[in-house]
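User: I want to check something. If I give you two sequences, will you return the structure for each one separately, not as a complex?

Assistant: Yes, each is folded on its own. Here is the first sequence with its structure:
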Amino acid sequence: MVFMSVSSETVVNVRDMLGRWRRKVGEATKKAEDLAGNTWQHLKTSPSLTDAALGRLAQGTKVLAEGGYDNIFRQTFDTVPGEQLQNSYACYLSTSAGPVMGVLYVSTKKFAFSSDNPLSYKANNRTEWSYYKVVIPLNQLKAVNPSASRTNPAEKYIQVISVDNHEFWYMGFLNYDGAVNCLEEALIYRNL
């Protein structure tokens, strides 16, 4: 038999490495659980689970075909020179007609939401179709308030209030924490 001598320094190094690995696994597990929960909540927000899943697939296809969210943002909204898209978030906008699935864009100049599909409305006894859009210039932004349902904490919302006190409620985010952080940062830096 051969016995090896292990120094106490080696034991400490191995213990520290295992501790770091355990923390990283824990963080990855938390992120995976959040993503799964957010995805489930996103799909449940739609009146039809199937429509929501197909809508996300169609949106992903559009993003690939159009060359990314930045290109879609620039095609969908008027932009000013130097304006940069910071991030985009798949979510729903709460409306009196029910939740509208779309994408919330955050740029260096504005918050902008556009529905994934055109919605119908009546005009002169005819049915018209149009994308549902909301645009709030950052200098017109008053507040960003994250919240959750008291009865079901998995239902998370973000209330956006403009300086003229219009309220917009967004929900069903695939990346809720990322959206909250990005929107709060935009609020902080809106006047710089």
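And separately, the second sequence with its own structure:
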Amino acid sequence: MFARSVVAAFVAVPFVAQVAFAASCTRSYTVKEGDWCDTISAANNASTYQLAVVNPSIDSSCTNLEVGQTLCLGTEGEDCQNTHVVQSGDDCDVLTGTFNINSTMLYANNPQIDSECTNLYVGEVVCVANTVAVPAVPSGSATPAVVIPTTAVPVKTTSVAATSTSAAPEPTETDDEDLPWCDEL
């Protein structure tokens, strides 16, 4: 009797988890011929990151979509619909300035963006909301949507400027005169 209960519970867990996931999905999309993650995201105002997080069955390069497959676009309370399709010349400074958001919010809503903001690509869909609006990275998993498609065009094609090797000027005794708290030392 106990063995049957354990087997029944083991078999039911994935079904219950799938039903619970489906219940929290607020928007959905049916895959059509020629779709890939960025086109679906752009057409439906869902960031590429968000699409990947709420559909863990999508592989990291978005090559396993099937025509007729139903995808979740957003979940209740975690559905960024304020998005931007990255264009040539965009970088994190351009995005924060254009959409009047701070970099902390940009990175919170787009954790796939690296700390130097060098992995944005043309066509990527990012969340530009001024509040945290996307689901968190599931615990124990890598950040989804970090694989840049092989056909992606980087937003910046300029080389990094050479850095100066000159030493910083030597401090003087009067360097801290304009800082009131230093005068008290």
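Because they were folded independently, the notes below concern the second chain alone. Residues 98 and 128 are 9 Å apart (CA to CA). Strands lie at 25-30, 70-75, 83-85, 125-127.
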